[in-house]
Amino acid sequence: MLRELTLLQFRSHRRAHLVFDGRPVAIYGPNGAGKTNILEAISLLSPGRGLRRATADELMRRAEAVGWKIRAETEMHELETSALPGCAREVLIDGKAAPQVALGRILRVLWLVPAMDRLWIEGAEGRRRFLDRITLSFCPAHAEATLAYEKAMRERNRLLKDMVQDARWYHALEGQMAEAGALIAAHRTEALARISAAQEGAATAFPAAHLAIENAGPADLAQALVEGRRRDMAAGRTLEGPHRADLAAVYAEKNVPAAQCSTGEQKALLISLILANARALKGENTVVLLDEAAAHLDSARRAALYNEICALEAQVVMTGTGAELFESLGPRGQYFEVTEVAGTSVVTERVE
Q1: How far is CA 183 from the centre of its chain?
Q2: With respect to CATH, is domain 1-107+285-352 assigned 3.40.50.300?
Q3: Is 0.85 surpassed by the pTM of this model?
């Protein structure tokens, strides 16, 4: 669980310091004040590029342009991630340099942001990324397998584009892809099984979803890559494998594919999956980030959401445009107001 969070020269925040007391956190303020920037900072305490998938240079305050830093304290560790202008992001864990993937073993960070509202009706890439974030929360080793697969595939694609014919150049790379691809497929399958188990019998006001992985790739990827070289060479890229997988969801009660559901139903399905993910993790240092999740819910559904959040064995940080959105959360929550003063975000805890 996060105990403290400090932002330095990060996005709209020159400096912000938040101390968390274990209750669900509600951050409110007008649009553009800098609420989501706090969630983004927390998301960067996990492997990857965070909830906006921004580059390191995009994260620093433009006024000073001196780089940025995020510090956090958990119950067991001190975390720090930062970047200087034009430099790659760095990570420190307890004062020692560490790879980003190591963050996944300390915090399991889940998020739901408005940009994901179109998840079910847009391209497969976003759904695949969503699937892999779920998978990473259960299996931190999934990050290493994905990196190994993508590195080998990039090198194979380079050979394909250069029209290299010699099979010996491909052998080792395809072996690496097959080994990593098998791990990726196994991790994803296990993750969906745990999500499904967490949905069964759960007392929730949100709809359950039947999930499946489509186009997961051939069972014998190594052989498929060998047989597909000529076709892949014509395309200039690898056409089969777990990098082409898609996540399919069906609204269980109505037996309707998520893509055919209403906008409200699609949002409810996403909230349901995030809650199920958190339940399945059973408090394994889980942090759930909900950006404007309650904005389009009616008062009854908002109250139900807060009841479920309070029952989770997870730390939840939410944003909303006004304190009234969190009225039914009441004293069960901890509140921070974010305002903008002369182009700088100011964070103030509301003490009742």
Answers
A1: 20
A2: yes
A3: yes
